[in-house]
Design goal:
The complex is a heterodimer of chains A (about 140) and B (about 375).
Chain A lengths: L5 H5 L2 H6 L2 E4 L5 E2 L14 E4 L4 E10 L12 E8 L2 E7 L13 E12 L4 E10 L11
Antiparallel strand pairs in A: 1-2, 1-3, 4-5, 4-7, 5-6, 7-8
Chain B lengths: L2 E8 L10 H14 L9 E5 L3 H4 L5 H8 L6 E5 L5 H15 L4 E9 L5 H9 L14 H15 L9 H10 L13 H6 L2 E3 L2 E2 L8 E10 L11 E10 L14 H14 L8 E4 L6 H8 L8 H6 L10 E2 L4 H4 L4 H16 L13 E8 L4 E9 L1
Parallel strand pairs in B: 2-3, 2-4, 9-10, 9-11
Antiparallel strand pairs in B: 1-7, 1-8, 4-7, 5-6, 8-12, 11-12
The chains are: A mainly beta (about 140), B alpha/beta (about 375).
Chain lengths: ~140, ~375
């Protein structure tokens, strides 16, 4: 069974702290998550870019049947979110009402704990999203 | 080189708490013999399985099963391709036969999903997503299909209740299927009040937790197995994969890998998919059914669910789809499911034992899916 691993997370931490994506220098296609070659044209001449911190909701779900590392957070919202040139699949947090989750709703990125291993004490962090421009919400977010 | 199915075995799908992977595999092998199949001439074994490494901590499964059934010192391998493992294994078997490396290949699909609590099952089905990205944040097969479902319902103006037509039909279809897991009728009210798995998808839109094993024998036309044992001919098989991540898909209402498989099958066999009489598809989480039906060109884009609501694809229609209950009601022992599908189509075109009814027609098709349209495997079969 999977356990959290220091090296597994360490090598991808920067991606998870920024959701950095790849853009093909040859054909201009942008994609997340990054791959070694462009899914459109096959070129490996790519550059890394940082997405904007705000985006728009495409589709979402409220997942009750969660994997074991998410038992203490369930149910969790998961959404497909457009961040300008790319889409990302991410957790949505701080949802006060599902009315906030209509298609096209504005979302903002927040830094959060993703999962932890109770016995080994490891914690993975990453970016999640929450409904944006809500009255009283801080852009920094905690 | 023509390739034939010369035997099949089906064992009852259930939560077999008292049986091991080897126990289940042995049951489907014995059923081949019970149904008159010839096991003595087997010269290769392929095991289709997706979760043995995770849930039973068992890799090299084909070796373990080979020795368990007394098949030593021969060609064995395990095929893992998610829910498409079984059909991919049959395709591999067919290729071994065509290459001349083997004359009769035994394909055993086997899976045990019931060994742990629900959150471990949920973890297992999250391994079909990109582990370092989408699954990292808790996504599973259920949440991925739910996102497709919400998008499909919204784009084509359906209600969540409309999804219920498919599981109701699947439960009806499984009533007379001896090996099916869920043999009872369900009502619209039961579907729409069942617990939510991942909104808008509910328990009764979702496959059950299934343990099971099915097996087929894939034989060369010049094999020593007598011609009268031939049950169906494999006309063509193909498998394709496409982007695993939903974040990279241009369209959430189609599977590009299915288009690749359909094109390859039609080109390779010179058979128009619309001429097929009987189809077994992966209907994972209900929403897969209209997307695959549309992808095969049987319904227009966005009208697949409408055609299901209108009563299409029942036994007797052309094509009949999932007359043995699909993953919803027959059950979904992931790595084994494709072998069940191939065995079912073979049976329905020949002896009818898989349902107590034959299908009038010559052509059958299996469409098996791994992940969320990430892998599609197709096997086109013809009555002998």
């Amino acid at each position: 069974m999977e356990r959290l691993s220091i090296s597994k997370f360490w090598r991808i931490r920067k991606l998870h702290y920024t959701l950095a994506y790849s853009k093909c220098k040859k054909c201009g296609y942008a994609f997340y998550p990054p791959k070694h070659v462009c899914p459109k044209c096959g070129s490996s001449d790519l550059e890394q870019r940082t997405p904007p911190r705000e985006g728009k909701l495409i589709s979402w779900t409220k997942l009750y049947e969660v994997p074991f590392y998410f038992e203490d957070q369930k149910p969790i919202y998961i959404g497909l979110i457009n961040l300008g040139e790319v889409n990302v699949m991410a957790q949505i947090v701080d949802v006060l009402s599902e009315d906030e989750l209509r298609e096209g709703a504005e979302m903002e990125m927040v830094f959060r704990r993703v999962k932890q291993d109770g016995t080994a004490g490891l914690i993975y962090y990453g970016m999640k999203f929450r409904p944006a421009h809500r009255s009283g919400s801080s852009k920094q977010g905690q | 080189m023509r390739v034939f199915i010369t035997g099949y075995g089906l064992s009852k799908i259930s939560k077999w708490f008292g049986e091991t992977l080897e126990d289940l595999a042995f049951k489907s092998v014995k059923d081949i013999e019970n149904k008159g199949g010839e096991l003595r001439e087997i010269d290769a074994l392929i095991v289709a399985n997706s979760f043995g490494g995770i849930l039973q901590s068992q890799n090299l499964l084909s070796s373990l099963i080979a020795e368990d059934i007394g098949f030593s010192g021969k060609l064995t391998m395990t095929v893992e391709n998610g829910g498409a493992s079984g059909a991919s294994a049959v395709l591999t078997a067919s290729s071994l036969v065509k290459s001349g490396l083997a004359k009769n290949v035994l394909v055993i699909g086997v899976e045990k999903m019931s060994d742990y609590i629900g959150s471990v099952f949920n973890h297992s089905i999250s391994t079909f997503m990109n582990a370092e990205h989408e699954a990292f944040y808790g996504s599973t097969l259920a949440s991925g299909f739910a996102i497709l479902a919400r998008s499909y319902l919204s784009k084509y103006k359906y209600s969540e209740e409309d999804l219920g037509a498919w599981p109701i039909l699947m439960h009806e279809n499984a009533l007379d299927v001896p090996h099916a897991q869920l043999k009872f009728k369900i009502t619209k009210e039961q579907v729409n009040s069942s617990d939510i798995v991942s909104s808008p998808l509910r328990v009764l839109h979702s496959p059950p937790v299934s343990d099971g094993s099915a097996a087929v024998i894939v034989s060369a036309e010049d094999s020593s197995i007598p011609k009268e044992k031939r049950l169906a001919e494999i006309k063509f098989g193909y498998s394709s994969s496409h982007l695993m991540e939903l974040s990279l898909r241009e369209n959430l209402d189609e599977f590009y890998a299915l288009k690749c498989v359909k094109d390859a099958l039609e080109k390779g066999s010179s058979i128009d998919i619309k001429k097929v009489d009987l189809i077994e598809i992966s209907d994972d989480y209900t929403i897969s059914a209209p997307i695959i039906i549309e992808g095969l060109g049987l319904s227009d884009k966005g009208s697949g669910l409408r055609s299901i609501l209108d009563g299409r694809y029942r036994l007797g229609d052309k094509p009949s789809i999932n007359v043995t209950g699909g993953t919803k009601s027959r059950g979904h022992p992931f790595g084994a499911t494709g072998v069940y599908q191939v065995a079912e189509v073979t049976s329905l075109l020949s002896d009818g034992k898989a349902k107590g009814a034959r299908v009038n027609g010559e052509l059958g098709l299996v469409v098996s899916m791994g992940g969320i349209g990430t892998v599609l495997s197709g096997i086109l079969l013809e009555k002998v």
